[in-house]
Design brief:
The complex is a heterotrimer. Chain A is α+β, with helices and mostly antiparallel strands. Helix content of chain A is about 50%, strand content about 10%. Chain A starts with a strand and ends in a 9-residue tail after the last helix. Classes of the chains: A alpha+beta, B mainly alpha, C alpha+beta. At the A-C interface, helix 5 of A face helix 1, helix 2, strand 1 and helix 10 of C.
Amino acid sequence: MADAKVLNNNQILVEGPLPTDPESVRLVRADDADILLEVTAVSPGSEPGTFLVTTTETLQTADHYLMTLAGSDLMWSIAPSAMAVLVAGVIGSALINNMVFTRYLGLCVFFGVSRKKETAIGMGVTFTIVGLLSGMLTWALNEFVMRPLSLDFLQIIAFIGIVACLVQGTDLVLKKVNKVLHGKFGIYLMLITTNCIILAVPLLNATNEANLVEGFALALGSGLGFALALFLFSCARERVDMAPVPVVFRGLPIAFIVAGLFALAFLGFSGLSFL
Amino acid sequence: MSTATTRTSPPIGTLLMRGLFDENPVFRLALSLCPAVAVTTTVKNGVMLGVAVFVVQVLSSVSASLLRPVIIPKIRVPLFVIIIAIWVSVMDMVLAAFYPDIYAEVGLYVKLIVAFAIIISRMELFAMKHPPMPAFWDGFGMGLGFLVAMILTGALRELLGSGSVFGIQIVDFNPLLLVILPAGGFFTIGLIMALFNWVDVKRGIAVKDDYKGCHG
Amino acid sequence: MSTPQAAINTAPPSAREMAQIAIGLTVVCLIASIILGGFYLWTEPAKEHNVAAREQLLIRQLLGLSDRAEVGEVRRYLLWRGTNLEVFYLGESRLVQLDAIGNVIATRDVPPETAAEGDVDAWVASVAEPGEEQELRYVGRFFTGIEGGEAAGFVIEGKSIGFKTWIRFFLAVDAEFNLLGIEIIEHEEDPGLGDQITKPYFKHQFTGRSFDDIATIEVTKDPLPNEWRAALEALGETELDDWLQQNADNLAVHPDIHAITGATISSVAVADGVKRALRNFRKRMDLVEDHL
């Protein structure tokens, strides 16, 4: 398949020889391939060997289109590239749908280790790495074992089993390989099992029937988003702890209010589009 | 049987009060927070998840207590996790089958009950050391504490955010969008926590501000 | 959790203990799977039944069908043979095979045993005989409401990309393709903003529009006038026919869809999705209606 991409709302940039007649271009949505979209014009592109297809339909960059030419075996698949899906997925799960501030997951650990910047960074790094590993392992298990055998009802027990084994395994390996690193990050490893995000990632991937790239993006983005949230929050909290807060608000209540302000700020990311 | 099991168990009243107020899992221990913030935009969702947690907590506590004689101490934590995972999966399947409407909204959070620190910590700290009946009441109190917390937060948010409770219109006013927005959950819980502290101050108890996180 | 575990782990277990632990865990996992499998077998039929019942109820409500009416499902599949496309429509009793331009290649009767309880998707795949690296893909469906032997209306399943991910909706039309109503089935729009697409004052704005109205419908950012909003919210309590009579003027005065404040993208997504679903549905019906 040759290369083509959506240029704007009504135009597609295609790599290939310029067709003689707009009528010969068959442009369809992949899901509605039986309905032809009306093509009004074809014109040469800015670079040689490319051409522009103009349609009356409002095109969406995140959608999937197919194009063929009458009397030719060529077929163009117009969909976001794997790289675009990855970037959009990571940004999406780290900023727009931040696990902590919009899905409220992992709050337990979030409030527990955000008192100091140092612990926040330690937890963030550890979680991102282990979360990515477990995200990929559970994705593979779901894709190659549970879905083909329709063992969906064992999802919860299987996912938590994998996470627990992975955490124990990482702990053992780290202890043998690098004692210093283990001393620094070992205690965060154990806390990871109580972080809902690590379970939410495989469950969301399974529900959305994510492919490898989407699964990877969600696992990585969630980890990065959690680390970012934790770091930002710990910076604010170090200062709040010094501030003269009314007695009844001291400790957790004020931390929740601050988290609420962060959530409000993160709402600003909503609507960012990278596809 | 070990000596721990013969230890006298606290009276039912104390167990219930502990779950509801003194060690309320949401407002005091700040455990199992995710769903408390996420699904409480309406009372209905809050109740649904509250009941799910309640049932899982009671069943897990009782199971752990009943299985005391056969649980190998060295692998008790993985066993607890498996017990919880069984009950959560059962809850998940039952809710998905019989309450598809509400399940569509809170499904993910039902599955995530399995990672709630409150349940495993009650099994480890209480159910392992006590016979089934006190374990039942302890689980009952903690589960109820969670349920009440969910109802309280849900009612407050639904009332302020859409002027209704349980979907029934109560006051007619321009609703506070902020309360329904993700951020509103944090604000509401922060305010209720402060209220709990205020009650403590009135009772003459010093406010603790050293939250330790989810360790056991 | 971590502290007591770490304390126990300091002394390495003996071989006998290891075996005991391994056997113990295996047995526990087996028991767990058996318990869960049992519950699965018990709840799964109920789940399927309830999900289907919910869908049926929604369709009947949207079309305003009586209890005696029947609802039939038509599933659509696509098969690419190289650059040639074939389209399959599977009705309750017939399968229609079309080429890309809409000419009927073949029609087949669905075997009664497959129609009763078999896996229809697998049957279509076996009939379609996709070649190497060709895949028969299920792409969508619509429902026909049959009242007293005649088609009373259709419900079309559609989807559109919203603010975050797909918005899935049902779209009900009568036999003349006039819109009877829409219902949002699934969405992940922001609470308090985009999720207002499920509210009566938004979704009822589509009700009562003709096919031509929908084809040219626009989304406006003008605020929704209060009396029009009140009329839209009253639709849930009055019968559709009465409501249409009372609000014929209102519909004419408000030809556009008023976007939700702060959620224009979600509003446009629904409007575009409805527009496209209805246009495509009519084209498809023109091709296959007589053959199903």
